[in-house]
Amino acid sequence: MVKICVIGTTSWGMTLAVLLARRGTDVKLWARTEEEADKLRSKGPDRHVMGNIEFPASLSITSSAKDAMSLASAVIMAVPSQTMRRNIGAVKPYLKTYKLIISAAKGLEIGTNKRMSQVIADEIDPVYHKNICVISGPNLFREILEDLPAAAVVAAENEATAQKVQKLFSGPNFSIYTNHDMIGVELGGALKNIIAMGAGMVDGLGYGDNAKAAFITRGLTEMAAFSVALGASPLTLSGLAGLGDLIATCASNLSRNHYVGIELTKGRPLDEIQKSMTGVAEGVTTTAAVWDQAKKLNLEMPITEKIYRILYEDAAVCDVIPEILGTSCRHELAGRRWKLFSGRGKRSH
């Protein structure tokens, strides 16, 4: 029987553990403390968060990283992005050359601005780098738990590695596609959270569907410009990890980032909103990392800049969002240091 280790008792970590265990896979879910492990064993997942979901019989919970990693053919890192470095450090002594390392986190690390696969690579022996891959897509966890149809994309530098993960996850109502563009898949999953917060603000201000559609579309163009500047293929941003995830996160009331945007329009302080949530809205820290990286690249990012002002400089939502929607117009794909014209032999200025 295939054995899988899931690091992280986040809603997404538990969802992936349940998804795999329902198919009979032997899954070990690693909790940070024995107290947390005992609580999950005795009471199961929090019903306010996860709904009426039971842990399958083939899913066990441990607070021992050694036990969790023992004989596992893959380790899934489903932790908040700002804790990835610490968590990969906890399991790296138990890595083997046959173990796949799958990042399921959607964010960038504050300070380094690195993608999660880069953070993982920093912390482990280079001999294991070929085993790193990332999974992303329009995957709202409550719908996955309810066994509603969904799809995701797994990216790895080596196609054979991606295909192994594809085989691991694919099943009824969960389709997995492969890609070699790790940069684009990771950035798509991270950047859409910034746009989702803005979409929540547009909704909270009651600007309507026309304005929201325009905002999301301009957001996707900005996502593509940033990703291409860092080496991604623009086509990846039109796929599941880009447009697909963007649509789901901007449109659904299940999205934490969309929720943050709506609550900010009510005048609630960001700290208060975050403390009231049961999970992490990755868009908050991702905004800071992306805006910092954009300045280093001298890359124009008008939406990210304005969301940053709201989150970190106390700018008023009711002032800033109209600025985004009313930005002076030019060519749709033009922006400072954008390279979205490259396919036509032109460059933006």
Characterization of this structure:
It is a single chain. The chain is 49% helix and 11% strand. It has 349 residues and is an alpha/beta fold. The protein folds into two domains: 3-180, NAD(P)-binding Rossmann-like Domain (Rossmann fold); 183-344, N-(1-d-carboxylethyl)-l-norvaline Dehydrogenase, domain 2 (Orthogonal Bundle), CATH 1.10.1040. The chain has an eight-stranded mixed beta sheet, with helices on both faces. The chain is globular and about 60 Å long.
Briefly summarize what is shown.
With 349 residues, the protein is of the alpha/beta class. Helices cover 49% and strands 11% of the residues. The protein has 16 helices and 8 strands.
What kind of oligomer do you see? single chain
Which topology of the largest domain does CATH recognise? Rossmann fold
Q: Could you estimate the helical fraction of the residues in percent?
A: 40-55%
N-end to C-end Cα span = 56 Å
CATH superfamily of the largest domain: NAD(P)-binding Rossmann-like Domain
User: Low-confidence segments, ≥5 residues, pLDDT <50?
Assistant: 343-349
Strand neighbour order, sheet with most strands: 3-2-1-4-5-6-7-8
Integer tally of domains:
2
- Sum up the overall morphology in one term: globular
Count of alpha and pi helical runs? 16
**Major beta sheet, specifics?**
8 strands, mixed
CATH C-level class of the largest domain is: Alpha Beta
Please tally the β strands and state the result: 8
CATH-scheme architecture of the largest domain: 3-Layer(aba) Sandwich
Write down the overall mean pLDDT.
93
Beta-strand percent range: 5-15%
Please identify the structural class as seen in this structure: alpha/beta
Rg for CA atoms: 20 Å
N-to-C SSE string, H for helix and E for strand: EHEHHEHEHEHEHEHEHHHHHHHH
